[in-house]
Automatic annotation (TrEMBL), chain A:
TM regions (residue ranges): 15-38, 59-81, 93-112, 124-142, 148-169, 190-211, 217-235, 247-267
Cell compartments where the protein resides: Cell membrane
Family statement drawn from the similarity comment of this UniProt entry: Belongs to the binding-protein-dependent transport system permease family. CysTW subfamily.
Classification via PROSITE patterns: ABC_TM1
Protein's UniProt name: ABC transmembrane type-1 domain-containing protein
GO cellular component, one term: plasma membrane
Organism: Johnsonella ignava ATCC 51276
TrEMBL record, chain B:
Alphabetically ordered keywords of this record: ATP-binding, Cell membrane, Membrane, Nucleotide-binding, Translocase, Transport
Coiled-coil portions: none
GO molecular function: ABC-type putrescine transporter activity; ATP binding; ATP hydrolysis activity
Protein name per the record: Spermidine/putrescine import ATP-binding protein PotA
SUPFAM superfamilies: MOP-like, P-loop containing nucleoside triphosphate hydrolases
Oligomer status and interactors: The complex is composed of two ATP-binding proteins (PotA), two transmembrane proteins (PotB and PotC) and a solute-binding protein (PotD).
Organism, scientific name: Johnsonella ignava ATCC 51276
């Protein structure tokens, strides 16, 4: 009996690092953000930090963020789906190799990758240098919304490909064959069978791209210059430049609503995935 | 048997340089229940997939109803397939699954509803329209897969080991059900299985395949009673394949003893293989036997005893009988002339590989 008890105790001890980790680095910071977000400098309860999201300046940044991340997510989806389909068709061996190649850049530091794009896109950067060699007009992409979208798509594309690929490979080839057998053209098979069956993957892909794209400030800092403010930049500046921790926390709380909506969507389709497969 | 419905002409197919089907020629008559039978890797499923259009033959033609359909995609072929492991659409309910083919063909809603109802009745699952695929057992899913195929009124139904995933009892029930369906629908069934008993029970024509070749084609009785090579003899049921010498027409010498048989035309004093089914061997008193041996092994199998009788030359005869001869007993062996099947010894290396000379 004693032995049994000590066993349980020793097992319980194993949990402490995780509990400590979650408490120290997730729960406590979250509580701090809520406290900061709902108080002013004097520690008095206020909703001003939250409602300030409605001001023209913040609203503009938020709408731009939503717009750019939506466009990036859409582009990622349009690029990722055909790629995932090709990977599925390739079969296990070749498919896995292509996935590996695809994931390879993700092992490089996110900041480095983005800085590399900056060097490529700069006014006197590598791309324009090559273009001028052929006496072609240079492109002025750096410090525009297009550059930010490019950065988002480049950095987040793998997060769209992998979930869609994972869902697609699970679909039995004979299910596709059965649709063809029953008279469906390739097009009809895609819209009636493959697409509906891959919705769970598409949804998790969208959330995995949309959420980080919505809150990024690094990509817009590096590829957008200091000119374009996304909501991520606004919050970052409140924390780093000013002493607006309270305002920054308040805006973060608003952003969390968007993240919760995404999580809810994932949860909904995850449970459906369990049902369909 | 009716006229030819499907003709496979000089079909060849290889995967990654490995020959799976080698110059296969096969005529499938209308209204047949034809079974492609063979061990895994013999090319039977590939043959079916070539007929269904999911695989393209490297060489050769598929002729359907007088028309070359080698390049016709599966959705334009007037045949339907019941896949291994059912392959139902998991995001649709039962009615939607069955209706899929008809919806693609833009049939009216009333027609579709009628057809779905009829198909469910045919497979004994009335009232299952709104059930989820997941809520059905394997056997029920298989019936839905069949219903989904036959509502399209195909001329031919292709079945790829449809009962492979079911347990024994259910499999036997489904065998009878498939025979009933076949008779009710009056269409051609092409059936793929590795289960020889299934093939014997259901088919009117069996095509035994091995290593991409057709070994033998015939009625179940022909395949079982008159196997034309050691492979077929061994694959279909159990058999004793014994080296023998054909002394002259209707007389064969096995281990020095002469047996009367019914085969002719092998020549005189020619080495051959004799095939004798275990249930065709009669154990008698030693002095009445053509050969004498001793029982060395007995297993009770339920319906019969399986006995091993060793003759002085060391050969172990497999014998099935409802009468027990205990281990150690000396017995005589006799065989009725028509129960001995004579085969030529394999000549080429290829045939040697195919044949089973254990």
């Amino acid at each position: 009996m004693n032995n049994f008890l000590s066993k349980i105790k020793s097992r319980k001890i194993l949990v402490f690092p995780y509990v400590f980790w979650i408490l120290g680095f997730t729960v406590v910071p979250l509580i701090l953000i809520v406290i900061y977000g709902l108080t002013d400098k004097n520690g008095v309860l206020t909703f001003e930090n939250i409602t300030s999201m409605g001001t023209y300046e913040h609203m503009k940044a938020l709408i731009l963020s939503l717009l750019l991340s939506l466009i990036s997510t859409l582009i990622c989806l349009l690029l990722a789906y055909p790629l995932a389909l090709i990977l599925k068709k390739r079969g296990a061996g070749a498919g896995r190799f292509i996935v590996f190649i695809f994931v390879l850049p993700m092992w490089m530091n996110f900041l480095l990758r983005t800085l590399a794009w900056q060097t490529l896109l700069e006014k006197n950067g590598i791309i324009n240098g090559i273009l001028s060699l052929f006496t072609l007009p240079g492109i002025a992409v750096i410090n525009t919304n297009y550059a930010i979208i490019l950065g988002m798509v480049y950095n987040f594309l793998p997060f769209m490909v992998l979930p869609i690929y994972n869902v697609l490979v699970k679909i039995d080839d004979n299910v596709v064959n059965a649709a063809r057998d029953l008279g469906a053209s390739r097009r009809q098979t895609f819209f009636h069978i493959l697409l509906p069956l891959s919705i769970p993957g598409i949804v998790s892909g969208i959330t995995m791209v949309f959420v980080p794209a919505l809150t990024t400030f690094v990509i817009s800092n590096i590829l957008g210059g200091a000119k374009i403010l996304l909501i991520g930049n606004v919050i970052e500046q409140e924390f780093t430049r000013g002493s607006g921790w309270h305002l920054g926390a308040g805006l973060s709380l608003v952003m969390m609503v968007f993240i919760f909506i995404s999580m809810a969507l994932i949860a909904k389709y995850d449970s459906q995935e369990g049902r369909t497969f | 048997m009716g006229r030819t419905l499907i003709d496979l002409i000089h079909i060849e197919k290889s995967f990654d340089g490995e020959m799976v089907i080698d110059d296969l020629n096969l005529s499938i008559p209308e209204n047949a229940f034809l079974t492609l039978l063979g061990p895994s890797g013999c090319g039977k499923t590939t043959t079916l997939r070539i007929i269904g259009g999911f695989e393209r033959a490297d060489k050769g033609k598929v002729v359907f109803d007088g028309e070359d359909i080698s390049d016709v995609p599966p959705n334009k072929r007037n045949l339907n397939t019941v896949f291994q492991k059912y392959a139902l659409f998991p995001h649709m309910n039962i009615a939607e699954n069955i209706a899929f083919g008809l919806k693609i063909k833009n049939k009216s809603k009333a027609y579709i509803d009628d057809k779905v109802k009829y198909a469910l009745k045919l497979v004994n699952l009335d009232g299952y329209e709104n059930r989820d695929v997941d809520s059905l057992s394997g056997g029920q899913q298989q019936r839905i897969a069949i219903a989904r195929a036959i509502v399209n009124e195909p001329k031919v139904l292709l079945l790829d080991e449809p009962l492979g995933a079911l347990d024994l009892k259910l499999r036997q029930d489904m065998q009878y059900e498939l025979i009933r369906l076949k008779n009710e629908l009056g269409i051609t069934f092409i059936y793929v299985t590795h289960d020889q008993e299934e093939a014997l029970t259901m088919s009117d024509t069996i095509v035994v395949m091995n290593q991409g070749y057709i070994q033998q084609m015939g009625t179940p009785e022909q395949i079982y009673n008159e196997p034309n090579c050691a492979f077929v003899a061994d694959f279909i049921g159990e058999s004793n394949i014994i080296p023998a010498v054909m002394v002259k027409d209707e007389l064969v010498e096995i281990f020095g003893a002469r047996f009367a048989c019914v085969d002719r035309g092998f020549g005189n004093n020619k080495p051959v293989d004799a095939v004798i089914r275990p249930e065709d061997i009669d154990l008698v008193e030693p002095e009445k036997g053509t050969l004498v041996g001793r029982v060395t092994h007995v297993i009770f199998k339920g319906v019969h005893y399986e006995m091993e009788v060793t003759t002085p030359d060391g050969y172990e005869w497999l014998v099935h009988s409802t009468d027990l001869s205990p281990v150690g007993k000396e017995v005589g062996i006799t065989v009725d002339p028509f129960d001995i099947q004579i085969m030529n010894k394999p000549v080429s290396e290829d045939e040697e590989a195919i044949g089973v000379n254990e």
